[in-house]
Amino acid sequence: MPRVFIARLAEAIAAKGSPVCVGLDPVLERLPQAVRNASGTPAAAIESFSLGVLEAAAPVAPAVKIQSACFERYGSAGYAAMERVASRARELGLMVIYDAKRGDIGISARHYAEAAKNLGADAITASPYLGPETIEPYLEVALGVFVLVRTSNPGSAPVQTPALMDGRGVAHHIARIVSRLGQDHRDDALGLSGVGAVVGATQSSEGAALRAVMPDQVFLIPGFGAQGGTADDIRAMLRPDRTGAADAGVLVTASRSIIYPNPDSGVEPKKQVQNETAGDWQKAIAAAAERMRDEIAAAVTPERV
Amino acid sequence: MPRVFIARLAEAIAAKGSPVCVGLDPVLERLPQAVRNASGTPAAAIESFSLGVLEAAAPVAPAVKIQSACFERYGSAGYAAMERVASRARELGLMVIYDAKRGDIGISARHYAEAAKNLGADAITASPYLGPETIEPYLEVALGVFVLVRTSNPGSAPVQTPALMDGRGVAHHIARIVSRLGQDHRDDALGLSGVGAVVGATQSSEGAALRAVMPDQVFLIPGFGAQGGTADDIRAMLRPDRTGAADAGVLVTASRSIIYPNPDSGVEPKKQVQNETAGDWQKAIAAAAERMRDEIAAAVTPERV
Questions:
Q1: A305 is a domain residue
Q2: Residues B67, B119: Cα–Cα separation, whole Å
Q3: Which of A67, A133, A155 has the CB atom closest to B108's CB atom?
């Protein structure tokens, strides 16, 4: 079940040689002008752009993370676009991580799990606040899960860092719960579990401590690139006994720095891209994904003795 | 802003004389046979049922809570059904609480807020794990927010109850954050804020303590009825200085006990309802909502001296 997910993910990472995950967070105002001109509705524009990103990134990235909010924003039309985008991602051989940060219980949680399956997702992101029973329904339908543990946004500190009676922070406590929950979903050959954790690249000072608590978890690491996370930040979160990218225990995700690759030079984004043709923007995305792959690959490859 | 939400909610509660919120969690297998027979697809069946529930409950309930998972489970077709159901709820004068338990940051949170607005929601439920900045985007578009503080499911304890260094539990800490966040969105005449809290009916032992921390919050209270919460449990969570149902600071939600009102006698649910006609099941729902209204009204009305 989620063991199948983790084995497939490791295989995909090995095949591409790097744990790069493209964050697909399409925002209408930032799309290339060529895409917006050719699309009749906002939902059609984000769909067309997303399909173009998938094509450009598929040779480089083993996985794509689809941000549900960007599609839900356009209601049922946006949701239908997301269905087609997820379907195309699978056709292109990409692992699909449904970034929905869902968190409910009972039949509602089971329905969210069905929704993710229907979408063709391989894994989902989930919030831990309602307890382990909010995670289990995903595992029961063989989805991988990435539980929010320590996120990259500065504003998360008031909730995630206060210390419990044993001196450990709330995020550390959640990490222990995730680690325990993951034990039954572990691929022993890989030493990795189908229950992973979201740990922000900008939290690298805590990264090593969280890795010690969660030795079997794949860390889905947002915040690389535009949010300031670097390859050094990633290094602190690797599994110490890794032999290569596939069992390094990380999946590094970048969104803005890949899908809007123009240097953010203070120029109004609309201006930056208005003269681009379809070929141009896709080439720029492919190049950005390659740059990130190379940076990350260097970071996760064990040093030769 | 969210002040408008809280004023409208209080007005709706005063008009109906009771803070009953119908939880619309339609599950295909539990729908009346008449509805299933008449509907071509699962999404059409839950839509038809939901519209019938709204009609039956509107004379009694000031608000409806729409469980997003039950609609998302059927993909874009389910989402489109949810759009029509929310639209109909507004036509019937019901306040619409979008029970989506969303929790994201930055542009994603803003997109979730837009999605809720597009749906015609008056308020949304939200998870606090990513910090206050995950709540603010909803307030910025004038949505009310009910933040998950202490939930009714037994499995929430490992996350919500561990004590911080000051001896208070995690939920208590979140309550303080919610209370602070709510100060800028307070209707002074009512003494209530547009930032509310989800506090389960089954957590009444903590209810009074949470009320002390969150004097201005409307408690959205799930767990009444099928999950075991009673009118006595509600009483512990009322605002002490209330003058009536409208400023009692609670919105009590029940789902299964209202929308599937047949006594759960161990009989297979399908069997219970197969002989019902459309008129029958709607009458049973209206009666169940009235019973709940009367139970809750007695509990929230201040004792006469």
A1: no
A2: 13
A3: A67
Do A16 and A293 contact (CB within 8 A), yes or no?
yes
Kindly report the nearest CA distance between residue A197 and chain B, in angstroms: 14
Q: pLDDT by residue (tens digit) across B21-47? A: 999 999 999 999 999 999 999 999 999
Catalytic residue (one of B16, B65, B101, B271) = B101
Residue A201 within any structural domain of the chain = yes
Is residue A101 part of the annotated active site? The answer reads yes
Q: In this structure, what token pair is assigned to residue A18? A: 């790097």
| DSSP conformation class of A228 | -
Q: At CA B269, angle to CA B267 and CA B271, rounded to 5?
A: 75
Please classify residue B240 by burial: count the beta carbons closer than 10 Å to its beta carbon, then call 0-12 exposed, 13-18 middle and 19+ buried. exposed
Residue B102 near residue B69, CB atoms below 8 Å: no
Give domain status of residue B304, yes or no. Answer: no
pLDDT digits (tens, 9 = 90+) for A171-220: 999 999 999 999 999 999 999 999 999 999 877 789 999 999 999 999 99
Structure ipTM: 0.94
Mutate: best of B30, B107, B165, partner A, most A CBs <10 A: B107
Residue indicated by tokens 């740990």? A199
Chain A residues near residue B105 by CB distance under 8 angstroms: 151, 153, 155-156
pLDDT tens-digit map of B274-297: 556 667 899 999 999 999 999 998
Run of H or E including B79: helix B75-91
Write out the residue range of the structural domain in which residue A264 sits: 2-300
**Total structural domains within chain B:** 1
CA angle A107, A108, A111 (to 5 degrees): 85
> What pLDDT, in 10s, does the model give residues B181-223?
999 999 999 999 999 999 998 777 899 999 999 999 999 999 8
d(CA A210, CA A214) in angstroms, rounded, equals 6
> Do the domain assignments include residue A295?
yes
